[in-house]
Amino acid sequence: MKGVDRLAAFALAITSILGGALVPAGCGGKLAANRSPPSGATGNIDSGAVPPATDASEADSPGDVTGEGSSSSAALRFDGVRAYLNLAAASGAASEKAFSSEIWFRTTSLTGVLFEVYSSGMPGADRSTFLRAGQVCFYVYTPAFSEVCTTGATLNDGAWHNVAATLGAAGQFVYVDGMLQGMDPAVTTSAFNWDTGFRVGYGYIGGNGPLVFFAGDIDDVRVWSVQRTAAELAAGRGHSIDPATVGLQGYWKLDESGTAKIAPDSTAAMNDGTLLGFSFNPSPWISPGAF
To answer: What is the mean predicted confidence (pLDDT) over 121-148?
Structure first.
């Protein structure tokens, strides 16, 4: 079960944070050709549009920023209309050369953005994971558009699924529920180096794609400044991990409740997330979560 121990996390050493990027074309994810995943184991240059203005009474008012506190197991429900989660990041945001993201989701919608690295200044976004036609894709801006996608059963089945996307010296990989689903060993670096933060539940569908909201539930978001191996991903999946784990850049457990408008970052960096565009009648915090 998950719980937030901010005092303990604050006492831990702050993990160093690098800079990052994202982009897609077709949904043709490439499985390895004469190449295996790491041992042991899409920059978008569109208009840079921001989400529609939200009702201050629901999103931007200071209100109750802590709400009713943390639940032992919860998740955050997105309406697919205007709700999204903005995650703070240290200067430089994500690393272009070593990056991993992990997220749990549950939906019945065919299309929606789960996570993206984006820029609040110059236009664009990158290193995103999203659903298109029920398949999950991981996009990287190279500056060509590189996208690897699942090709099996669709994942908008209303069940919880875990998606991990990694980029680094071994290549570009996407895993679903612990299984490698797509890869491109030739893509090792993102060219999107003007990112400023992370976004959950809203963003671009690949390179030059539309801006789309996500409808469904999201839980346990992790961002890394290292390329995680398949073995490391498997070892940490389905349970809480030490927020001081080397390379863990941000860790949003999404275990809040009630009217909480802040999603705490469990790492010592304390880059808390902010709920924007959510209605709190009823609360978007649901229980139980993925685990």
So the answer is: 94
C-alpha angle 24-25-28 in degrees, rounded to nearest 5: 100
| Cα torsion 206, 207, 209, 210: sign | positive
Residue 287 lies in a domain: no
Domain limits for position 72:
6-278
φ/ψ of residue 98, rounded to 5: -150, 110
The answer to whether position 283 is within a domain reads no
* Whole-number Å distance between alpha carbons of 217 and 219: 7
- CB 248, CB 232: distance < 8 Å: no
Say how far apart CA 231 and CA 105 lie, in whole Å: 21
- Structure-model confidence comparison of residues 95 and 91, the more confident one: 95
Domain with residue 35: its CATH number is: 2.60.120.200
pTM of the model: 0.80
